[in-house]
Design a protein that fits this description.
Elements (H helix, E strand, L loop, with lengths): L6 H25 L24
């Protein structure tokens, strides 16, 4: 069965992934901006217990 012969397709698959990882990925990642982490101070909320009118 010819579809089980990986000889011609494996070279195409490996060359495509090689081109993607070596050429296209650095160009694409250059345009993607990541969010810079911001140092936030944790503020503790001053909570008081809720007074229920029926207790």
């Amino acid at each position: 069965m010819p579809q089980l012969n990986p000889d011609p397709w494996f070279l195409i698959l490996s060359s495509t992934w090689l081109a993607y990882t070596m050429i296209l990925q650095p160009k694409i990642s250059y345009y993607l901006s990541t969010n810079n982490p911001i140092n936030k101070t944790n503020k503790t909320a001053n909570t008081s217990p809720w007074t229920w009118p029926w207790t």
